[in-house]
Amino acid sequence: MTADAAQAQGTDATPVPFRAEVKQLLAILAHSLYSDREIFLRELLSNASDALHRVQFELLTNREARDQAAELAIRITTDEDAKTITIADSGIGMTADELAEHLGTIAKSGVKALMEGLEAGQKSQMIGQFGVGFYSAFVVAEEVIVTSLSYRPDAEAAEWRSSGDETFTIGPAERTERGTTITLRLREDAAEFAAPWRIKQTIKRHSDFVAFPIYVGDEQANQQTALWRQQPHQVTAEQYNGFYEGLTFDHNEPLLHMHVSTDAPIDLHAVLFVPATRERGLLERRIEGKIKLYSRKVLIQEETKDLLPPHFRFVEGVVDSEDLPLNVARETVQGTQIHQRIRRTLTGRLTKALGELAKDDAEKYAIFWREFGPFLKEGIAIDPMVRGDLLPLLRFHSTKAEGEALISLANYAERMAEGQDAIYYVLAGDLESARQSPHLEALGARDLEALLLTDIFDSVMLEGLREYEGKPLKNLDDPDLTLPGDDAGAASRVDDAAFAALTARVEAILGDRISGVRGSTTLQASPARLVSAAAGPGREMARFQRMLGRDHSVPTKTLELNRGHQLVVDLARRAGDGADDALVGLLVEQLYDNALLLEGLHPNPAAMVGRLQALMAAAAREGK
Ligand code: ADP
Ligand code: MG
Q1: Whose CA is nearest to atom 4 of ligand 1?
Q2: Which of 78, 80, 115, 202 is the most exposed place for a label (fewest CB within 10 A)?
Q3: Greatest CA separation found in the chain?
């Protein structure tokens, strides 16, 4: 049918108003997509490709589907004089009702998220980076005409038409071939898209790997070959990156790709990617990894869960196997034995690839660790079966690694000291506090190393990481920690009687916020620290709950005082006077708060200001 004939028919049809959110989207797109407007083509081709995949799947089992023999392809024709582009596919097609439903409302959650993001004032220039769908056609077109014939044998052809203003119309159409044809009457300022070279260039840029041929005139414009079925050595880095972009709409290069292409023992062709960042923001099309599952080049499942373990759920890519039974329902693929074998193979290969990245490119691995470490930590915590695989991938800050540098458990084990039988760590809210932690003073001159755990997920990981190669992990705040070699603590300068008096005073001041006071055998430079009341993993989980904001209580710990520290010596002297010295109260409270701060446990540091001012006033008076 010609555009004119369609026009004639369109005038008979009743105009239907767009849903409010569509109108809103159209207005936003018109304003913000201008510089990226060529992506309209990517969106329309992506829809055509989806429609072809869906009919391909249908044709496997449905003998009734219309046009069994039609070539699965996309054809683009342009008319430079009339300034039109026509994009025709032999896909699944739409009935009149489906046209109204799919092109009159915004069903897609990605677009909804986009609109919410834009309302929240997010940068509209980001629009080009994710799927904006069918309506992007109106950025280049003053009118869009869609005719379609559904694969259903009893369906009738229908037409949808709109100028992208308030309404669209639905009417009958003359059409006998299955599929959808979209005609764009280009705006004056978008006339360039009527030139075949411009269309071909855009296809190369954004749609090269669409799995069906895209013809521009008589010429096929896309490369089309399934990248994952090629041999890895034949594929260039640029091709992997281009493929990734087409798959995810993520403009950033992926951090890592892994390509498996084997025929035996199972037929398996897969390209998997680790993205460069964990979340590509509110506006992005997808937040978590999605894997497309193909069998014999037919897309079986768009978002396949369970092809990788949960700790790799950020991975994106394509998996294709001839061995997957095609005639089963999509839902039942998951339970099959072949599915399990694919999962084992991919998991093993991915684990290996990450291990190699860690070895070959520490810098890149550090980025990986920063972005996706939490997933591996969670894996360690919840699945004992994967622990062995994941241990070599873990990385830590450490007292023997400067700045942000990371070490592995193997690095730690290699340089353990004579007689050392455990791996030590401290928990803190951030790296700075960790390096200042008074618990580290126990390490003293012994040349022992401690891991510095500052990530919120470290507490979770510790649930499942109680030992490494037979060596237990020990928190340096354990109440009865013993370290190899002599005690490192400062020599006592407070006699037992004076210390007992001080202890009584401190316990009276802090009450049940602490479980007791004791002298330290390890502290050197710090006056005090908080040790856990009892050893055991429970406190790490409690810490996690606190960090999530689910628990606001401060755990009760033992306050350990350094009997060799001048501040403690002076405190003991003042406490020994027995005078009701308000200053002792302030000092003890502040000493306790300081210890909480260094643990990352202080519930409200601002509350210290009043007391600090009182202490400053006292100090200033003293100096007069
Ligand atoms: P999305 O593709 O993310 O669902 P779009 O706005 O691009 O969002 O498309 C909306 C819907 O319109 C699609 O989900 C599909 O049902 C339908 N559609 C669009 N183009 C076609 C087409 N060429 N053939 C069949 N259906 C289509
Ligand atoms: Mg789409």
Answers
A1: 108
A2: 80
A3: 105
